[in-house]
Design a protein that fits this description.
Layout (H helix, E strand, L loop, with lengths): L4 E12 L2 E7 L2 E3 L3 E5 L6 H8 L7 E6 L2 E2 L5 H7 L1 E3 L12 H9 L7 H6 L1 H22 L2 H4 L10 H13 L5 E5 L7 H17 L4 E5 L3 H7 L2 E6 L2 E6 L1 H6 L1 H7 L8
Parallel strand pairs: 4-9, 4-10, 7-8, 8-9
Antiparallel strand pairs: 1-2, 1-3, 1-5, 5-6, 10-11
The protein binds adenosine-5'-triphosphate and magnesium ion (MG).
Adenosine-5'-triphosphate binds next to strand 2 and helix 1.
């Protein structure tokens, strides 16, 4: 793992006033690995994503991507370096079409700017047409049905398709690390399974991508993760295979009487 790891944190910590939301957390992920991140409500999962994507600056510790510290870097720079995410609460533009939402993700990769729109229209036209092809191929790798819905406003789609579009938008940034924050929230077990199959497919098509996935459902975690890390009150309390973590006493106690995972 040591040589193959693409991302790692070192004693990552953040406090909000007196509350220690993330407490000296060390996690790492190898290239092509899917890491499940679990923990009861308020255990610090989303906060870790917010730190990794530059929304919050940690109070202590550091985090590294492809050998380089990203501490203090702004979100757009972190995104350009190859880390993309989805949000627990959807951030899609509901009035825009499926295709346009995916285009928004691509804008991070675009090479040509306003000046080209005026002086080099040919370059811009080529880039737009390539982006369009890429968006369609992304939609079809993810789920073929989405191609037929490319012109439909996202607001008219069911929850599961919105989640798919959101993941496609993140994928459009061509990330090497993808952070998924409860992608299956609000779905039926059947829908969750379908979404996980799609994510697996995307992951298998581009073995290079590493994924950290936050999920509350252990069936989902089991179906997709190579390894699992469990948090409680901002601390890492267990790490290992799905079986090891789900049998861990501290993990079982953390979930006792709390809304969340069925272990
Ligand atoms: N900006 C903030 N200001 C103050 N407290 C915050 C802030 N962001 C997060 N917290 C607190 O940090 C703790 C961890 O929150 P976080 O959202 O990371 O939990 P989570 O594990 O994602 O929970 P859930 O499963 O409910 O999504 C919580 O107590 C939360 O209230
Ligand atoms: Mg959360």
């Amino acid at each position: 793992m040591e040589n193959n790891r693409i991302f790692w944190t070192k004693d990552l910590s953040i406090s909000f006033g007196g509350l220690v939301a993330v407490d000296h957390v060390n996690i790492d992920i190898a290239r092509g690995e899917v890491l499940g991140l679990i923990g009861p409500n308020g255990s610090g999962k989303t906060t870790i994503f917010n730190i990794i994507t530059g929304i919050y600056t940690p109070t202590d510790g550091d985090f590294f991507f492809e050998g380089e510290s990203l501490l203090g870097k702004p979100p757009y720079e972190i995104a350009r370096k190859g880390i993309a995410r989805t949000f627990q609460i959807s951030r899609l533009c509901l009035d825009l079409s499926v295709l346009d939402n995916v285009f928004i993700g691509m804008h991070y990769r675009q090479k040509h700017w306003l000046i080209d729109a005026v002086f080099r229209r040919d370059l811009l036209a080529r880039e737009v047409s390539e982006a369009r092809d890429r968006a369609f191929s992304l939609l079809s790798v993810f789920n073929k049905e989405l191609v037929g819905l490319a012109g439909v406003p996202v607001g008219a789609l069911p929850q599961i398709d919105r989640r798919r579009v959101e993941i496609c938008r993140a994928m459009a940034m061509e990330p090497r690390l993808l952070l998924l924050d409860e992608p299956s929230a609000g779905m039926t077990l059947e829908e969750m399974t379908e979404l996980m199959e799609d994510i697996r497919k995307v992951q298998e098509e581009s073995k290079e991508i590493s994924i950290i996935i936050v999920e509350h459902d252990m069936t989902v975690i089991r179906s997709i993760s190579d390894r699992v890390v469990a948090l409680n009150y901002g601390r890492k309390i267990a790490e290992g295979t799905c079986e090891e973590v789900s049998h861990n006493t501290e993990v079982r106690e953390a979930y006792l009487g709390k809304r969340g995972i069925k272990i």
